[in-house]
Amino acid sequence: MYKPQSFHLENAIPINRKVLSIIHDPIITQEGGVKLSALFGWNDPELLAQLYIADVSECSYGIAQYEIIERVEVDGFPVKEDGFTYTTESFLKAWRAKSGFHEPDRVDYRAIIRDFDVVEMVESGHIDEVWLFAFPYAGYYESIMAGPGAFWCNAPPLPLEEGCNRRFVIMGFNYERGVGEMLEDLGHRAESILTHVFRNQTADNLWERFIRYDKKYPGRAEVGNIHYAPNSERDYDWGNPRNVPSKCNDWYQYPEFQNEFRLVNCAEWGAGDIRMHHMWWFQHLPHFMGSKDEMFNNWWEYVMDPNSVE
Prior knowledge:
Blueprint: E1 15-24, E2 27-28, E3 34-35, H1 36-39, H2 45-59, E4 64-74, H3 88-97, H4 109-115, H5 118-123, E5 129-134, E6 143-146, E7 168-174, H6 179-197, H7 206-210, E8 244-246, E9 262-264, H8 274-283, E10 287-292, E11 295-298, H9 300-304
Parallel strand pairs: 1-4, 1-5, 5-7
Antiparallel strand pairs: 2-3, 6-7, 8-9, 10-11
Helix pairs in contact: 2-8, 6-8
């Protein structure tokens, strides 16, 4: 994996965010009293959380610091928007048949916010965001933003009643999947937020420059987006050995661009490994002190704290 050079720029100071982690992992009594995650050999959500926290810290150069300060494990299934709730029997039947899952699938976010006193914890400063861990078909978005002035965050915004004065993000993680998919969730959150941040930049939209890839901008690739590496020819094509010119290195020294192209291919970002590609992608996000044209030189500020976005 390509390691960035040192350009003698000062990294931004750490951003600390406190998390409420809610894990729905019901105990299956008819299968010997094991948890659902263990029954199917899925990942331990606690281990996933710690690996994710470590990866985000590493690929942000220590800037993005998460701490789970409240952890709730639920022996049950979350409620859907229409009031439906799986039983262990109905979920196991659908999962083993690979059909018959409830529609509409979407979870009742307002019920989660109410039942776990989320607004009160956000308002008091006890937490800054929420992580939901559950099984496939739990009905979570990968991320959703709630609160006053909430905007698209890979899901429609969730306005809340009076009493909530801070925006916050609710992440949805599937413990059947791995840390790479969790980083992808964060990547789509970053894409949504930074698209909003730079929405009024027309002459030289820096975000649109950052996400250029060769298929869409032949010969002018930069870092690409979460689904498309600089040389990708289709979605999720992170293992493509094709060499393309890219200015991805420019983003290691933002905002002092050198405008130098070099040839890159999948060897730079893990040769098809989802986790390695996403780590590589995040390493390129501007992460330095100061500001330019009224924009932070540290884009993690926006990604981590939606209240910093106008």
